[in-house]
Amino acid sequence: MSRFLAMFLVVTCLAATTRDLVIFDTDSGLFGDDGAALVMLLRGSSQEVLQGITIVPGNVWAAQGAEYMFHILDLLKKPQMQVAVGAEAPLIHTAAMSKEFDRRWGGLGYTGAFAQDPTAVVPAPGSKISTRKLRRDAINFLISEIERHPGEITILALGPMTNIALALRLKPDIETKIKRIVFMGGNIRVAGNATPAAEFNFWFDPEAARIVLRSRIPKKMMFGLDICNLAKIRKAEFDQIASARNPIAELFREDLGNRYPGFLKKPDAIGFMWDSLAAAYLLDPDFVTKTESRYLDVQTTWGQFYGSTTPLDRRATPTATPVTVMLDLDFKRVFALYKDRLVRSE
User: Are 66 and 73 in contact (CB under 8 A)?
Assistant: First the structure.
């Protein structure tokens, strides 16, 4: 065997062992941060292999989230991508509970799907309802992919963690077979955005977040509001992407321009990259400049602090693994990556 061939085989084997098989768990709205995160991965490097998309309620109910994902995949010319709906509601939390919270204590902010009709599904603007058959086996899909690829699956969790919690409860032994979970959720030193105490993803399903944080998943990487609040999108950044001539940039313009945060109506508005930061971490982790390791839990006692992130009492859960909490970033670097993926014409 020639030295060149031997070197080629070594490099090929190393590439195979370092690949990142990703399951994209999302509560996607029309586009926003979830849609941008998907575009970033599908226009990313060959090292990120997207195994499938699982839909969870959060920003919208799951069937609506699937409809929005189908539309984005059509724009990307990726109709073959697996999309599966999982849980239809949080484990315990309900819209009625959130209304009662607001009646008692006030301060309720964004409530996502709780403010929407769970039976309604509408198409993306300018499109028709997808005719694709909707899979409803997301939790079994998660379990089977983890078991088929032990130690290789990265779960990118961009919404409430209901699907993941249910998978861990159904098959507890998969916890240690997951390579890592990279998630957007929680808050440590800053206020919440669903309530004064709680970040939206954790607040929408606190019991699910607790199951994941108390699990034995080897690596947990947290993009909470502490770092997400630093990744602000203003009108200047919006214009750099919205001016591009491709279907993804047009959807970006429609959603961020006319919906949230509404740059075309309110030029002084501020948006955030949120979930897109977690996706960017899979492509370029070095944009994160400060982290710390913590054992974390979630408040599940219903009250003013429901859904808030708390320290973990390790006496009760000694097998839980720590969470790497992302705290600071190089915004210019990560925005350049974000912009590059969204303005491409491919």
Answer: no
Tokens matching residue 269: 């508005």
Sign of CA dihedral 189, 191, 192, 196: positive
Q: Which residues of the chain have pLDDT under 70?
A: 1-18, 45-47
Contact yes or no for 309/189 (Cβ under 8 A): no
Among 323, 329, 324, 232, smallest CA distance to 289 is for 329
Q: Contact, 48 vs 181, CB < 8 A? A: no
Q: Output the pTM of the full model.
A: 0.94
The string of DSSP codes covering 54-102 is EE-SSSS-HHHHHHHHHHHHHHTT-TTS-EEE--SS-SS--HHHHHHHH
From the number of C-beta atoms within 10 Å of its C-beta (0-12, 13-18, 19+), residue 108 rates as middle
Phi and psi, residue 147, nearest 5°: -70, -30
- Residue located via tokens 């991508």: 81
Domains of the chain in start order, with CATH, are 22-343 (3.90.245.10)
Helix axes 162-170 and 206-213, enclosed angle (nearest 10): 50
Burial class of residue 303, CB neighbours in 10 A (0-12, 13-18, 19+): exposed
Of 79, 219, 207, nearest to 156 by C-alpha is 219
For 53-93, what is each residue's pLDDT tens digit?
Answer: 999 999 999 999 999 999 999 999 998 999 999 999 999 99
Q: Which of 148, 218, 206, 137 is nearest to 170 (CA)?
A: 137
Do 154 and 181 touch, CB atoms closer than 8 A?
Answer: yes
Angle between the 32-42 and 331-343 helix axes, to the nearest 10 degrees? Answer: 80
* pLDDT tens readout for residues 180-201: 999 999 999 999 999 999 999 9
Q: Give Cα separations from 198 to 191, 201, 327 (angstroms).
A: 7, 9, 17
In sequence order, which ranges of the chain are alpha helices (DSSP H)? Answer: 3-17, 32-42, 62-75, 95-105, 138-148, 162-170, 200-204, 206-213, 225-228, 235-242, 247-258, 275-283, 331-343
